[in-house]
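Protein modeling request. Please complete all fields; requests missing the sequence field cannot be processed.
Requester role: graduate student
Desired output: 3D structure, token encoding
Chains: 1
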Amino acid sequence: MSKVKYRLKDTYDFLRKCPETSEDDTYLITADITALYTNITTEKGLEAVSYYIDRYGDELLPKRFTKEFVLDLFTFCQNNLYFKFKDTVFRQISGTGMGRIYAPAAADLKVGYQEIQVDLIIENRLGQEVANHFMNNYFRFLDDVFMIWRKSLPEFAVIIEVLNSVDPNIVFTFESNLELNRQSGGIPFLDVEVYIKNHQILFDLFSKVTDTFNYLPFGSSHPRHCARNIPYCLARRIVAFVSESSNVNKRMSEHAVRLTKKGYPRGIIDDSIRRARLLSRHALLNSSRQNNSESENNTSPGPVYFVSTYNPRAKNLSPQITSIVDNLNLSLPAGKSVAVKPSYRKSPSLKNQLMFRPLTLAKVQKCGKDCTFCSYIKTGSSIKLKNGLQVRTNGNFECSSRNLIYIATCTGCSESYIGETGDQLLTRWTVHRQQSKLQPTQAPVQADVHFRLCGKNKYYVFPFYQPRRNNIFLRRRYEELFITKFQPQLNGKLYN
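Delivered output (496 residues):
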């Protein structure tokens, strides 16, 4: 995307590129491209992609990919856009699919190719001076456009006509700070408001009237460093985005009030504001550019991330990961090393569980095939243990279910054992039966011997939890958590 001429990476990129001064007759303009994604046809998209491959393919395209492969892949993606609405699957027959991973890149390439044609038309129709002003004062982030124009130049209606003439499907709609008639004379673009004061182009934070500033509550179930860094990151953003010191003070006060309502300690808020004020706006904008440049040019392999779902009750895995990686690096050739960093995904919230799961009662049931295990499986949505704790199932299980945590309860004494399996539950039960015939000193799971001697091989099995991924390390971690929570008496107990 670096070869798309007018493309902006983010607000930081816009603030770096936007001119700092203006003339007396300068006014500000923003534009929006109407329904950009759904108006990018396959033919026009192929034309744009083909242009950039022909011009920059040797520099940007990996050698293992040919131009024909990329164009065929784009055509395949465009012709196979499906979505589901009310249990009915639809196929999109025109445009680029919204939410598709390739859609932003396709949009940038399509509009970027159109802008190259616009440059030539403006130069031919209006002359080099107008073309140069357009090229130096036109900025675009996906479908949002910002322009600086002057009254002494040709009417801007001519520029609108040119922009909308290249492709009738791609329509630019414009508004200026003169039309908006704002008291400040400013106009919003991305998350800043741009305004002119004493021939200087200045910036302030912009938020829509519908913005609820629903920041992460300080007491939420997230790693502590995430919550502690939010006030500082927001304060840095104010320093970087706001031009005038009086506005900085005002935004910092608003920032403190909003975070206080979310339960953030005043000490953390004040310290974040103090540290952010020590930074200069110029340094923040240029450090962002340097980080982006380094990430784009860095071809060396980065660290491997060990991702797990955050649980405040779980043990910290960092020391164990560090120990394993250190031992691994000792066995590697000189100059070679591996870096592994722990990372967390957020645990599913109640909202997510209610919105993205069918509202049906999860339960355990028999397979209905009258298999040998059917008489051992405990049906229902929950069971009550001997110690009075209740265990509820988180999904629908039957004899052939895999990747789960289960409870086996002895019918003789009602004591329980918690185990895990990645195989079918029926297969795991067969292993339990075979191991129950061994002597107590030979049985890997002492509960199997207990079931034979105490319950006469009569016990029932209740599968109750299925992890999101079929991973033995994840299952064993959940097994440890549930053993700690429910305290089954047969786990690790030697049979006497």
